[in-house]
């Protein structure tokens, strides 16, 4: 049995499904199984990859078909991105379990759920397939099929989970740079609390650029890391469901795989947590710096208001001075006008006072009248102001 997991464009996926059933809409079907010649083919479409499993039961040696050639002849294998290649041989006795592997290759294995004895070296052969040799002991076909399915899913999910490891390693260097820049900038902000507004705005711009770079990294890796952790959980479930038991001094597959799988997943999880921590640290620093900028602006506004109040007081004093001078000036001109009336009255025989004396007496009265009129006008203007 051969099992492949790969990525393919919709058009290529359609070719795979149409090979088994031309009448099916390949974009709607997610699972199909059919027989081509003497080979049974099963296709499944998953969220981000597609799987193809081909197998044939025991036939005469001269009628056996090379499954690798069968795949290349019937499906567009050159147009897909291969992710997983597995070859599973179901053998007749325990004596044949090691025949498929080179003599110098180290093997791992055990007994799965007290029924299937399994061996594998987890090293690809000349065609790139990781091989499993199995011997079923007194099991029905359905039981064997379930064990094989769990074994295939275990290896598929393991490989899919590890796709996040190269991303984690690539992102780690950039994260280190971002963390160092944030550390330097935080130390700079903490060591100087009397920065000018221009310096604070410059720091805020640097922090905004760091936050943008951090968000781009998180966006580019969020799906891959989340998918890797989900696949890791499925791998653990499938591995546990095999219930592998140790055989002699042979190291079990589960022990071998976990010892190498868990550090890789820990690296992915650690990188994801570093991204979250960096994002939170940047957000807090931005909030603190924004608060500092707002306080600086508030201080500047307060100083500006005080300056405006001072100018207003000066203008008020000037206006009061001008108003007093205006009263004197208006009184002067008003007395000049009144003097013409007083001159005419002084020429009359009944007037006991001279023109000059009458003009002098009128000055206080005119002054009070002008002052009262201007005061009334000023109050009217103040009441009409918004």
- Using only C-alpha atoms, the radius of gyration works out to 47 Å
For the largest beta-sheet, the strand count, sense and barrel status come to: 9 strands, mixed
Strand content: 5-15%
The sequence of SSEs as H and E is EHEEEHEEEEHHHEHH
- Please mark out the parts with pLDDT under 50 across 5 or more consecutive residues, or reply none: none
- What is the strand tally? 9
Count of discrete domains: 3
Number of helices: 7
The CA-CA distance between the termini, in Å, is: 90 Å
Strand order of the largest sheet: 2-3-4-1-5-8-7-6-9
Helicity, in percent? 55-70%
Structural class: alpha+beta
The rough form would be described as rod-shaped
What is the average per-residue confidence, as pLDDT, rounded to a whole number? Answer: 83
Would you mind describing this structure in some detail?
This protein has 386 residues and is of the alpha+beta class. The chain folds into three domains: 2-150, no CATH class; 164-305; 314-384, no CATH class. It is built from seven helices and nine strands, in the order βαβββαββββαααβαα. The protein has a nine-stranded mixed sheet, sandwiched between helices. Strand 2 and strand 3 (39-45) form a beta hairpin. The mean pLDDT is 83.
Secondary structure: elements and pairs:
Elements: E1 2-7, H1 10-20, E2 31-36, E3 39-45, E4 50-55, H2 67-74, E5 81-91, E6 108-112, E7 116-120, E8 130-136, H3 141-161, H4 164-191, H5 197-242, E9 244-245, H6 253-346, H7 355-384
Helix pairs in contact: 3-5, 4-5, 4-6, 5-6, 6-7
């Amino acid at each position: 049995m051969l099992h492949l997991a790969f990525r393919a464009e919709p058009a290529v996926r359609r070719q795979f499904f149409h090979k088994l059933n031309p009448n099916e809409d390949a974009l709607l079907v997610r699972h199909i199984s059919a027989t081509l010649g003497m080979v049974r083919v099963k296709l499944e479409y998953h969220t981000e990859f597609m799987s193809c499993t081909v197998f044939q039961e025991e036939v005469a040696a001269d009628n056996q078909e090379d499954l690798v050639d069968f795949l290349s002849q019937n499906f567009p294998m050159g147009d897909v991105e291969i992710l997983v290649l597995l070859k599973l041989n179901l053998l007749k006795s325990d004596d044949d379990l090691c025949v498929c592997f080179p003599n110098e290759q180290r093997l791992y294995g055990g007994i799965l759920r007290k029924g299937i004895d399994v061996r594998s070296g987890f090293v690809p052969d000349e065609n790139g397939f990781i091989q499993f040799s199995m011997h079923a002991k007194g099991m029905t076909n359905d039981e064997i099929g379930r064990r094989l399915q769990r074994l295939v899913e275990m290896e598929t999910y393991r490989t899919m989970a590890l796709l996040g490891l190269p991303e984690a390693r690539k992102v780690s260097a950039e994260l280190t740079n971002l963390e160092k820049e944030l550390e330097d900038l935080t130390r700079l902000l903490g060591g100087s609390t009397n920065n000018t507004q221009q310096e604070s705005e410059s720091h805020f711009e640097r922090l905004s650029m760091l936050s943008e770079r951090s968000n781009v990294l998180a966006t580019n890796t969020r799906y891959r890391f989340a998918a890797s952790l989900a696949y890791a959980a499925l791998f653990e479930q499938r591995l546990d469901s095999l219930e592998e038991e140790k055989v002699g001094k042979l190291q079990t597959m589960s022990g071998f795989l976990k010892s190498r799988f868990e550090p890789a997943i820990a690296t992915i999880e650690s990188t994801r947590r570093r991204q979250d921590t960096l994002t939170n640290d940047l957000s807090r620093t931005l909030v603190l710096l924004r608060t500092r900028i707002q306080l600086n602006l508030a201080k500047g506004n307060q100083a500006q208001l005080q300056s405006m109040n001072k100018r207003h007081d000066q203008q008020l004093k000037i206006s009061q001075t001008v108003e007093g001078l205006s009263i004197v000036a208006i009184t002067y001109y008003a007395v000049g006008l009144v003097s013409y009336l007083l001159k005419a009255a002084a020429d009359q025989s009944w007037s006991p006072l001279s023109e000059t004396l009458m003009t002098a007496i009128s000055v206080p009265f005119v002054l009070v009248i002008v002052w009262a009129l201007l005061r009334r006008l000023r109050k009217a203007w103040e009441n009409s102001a918004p």
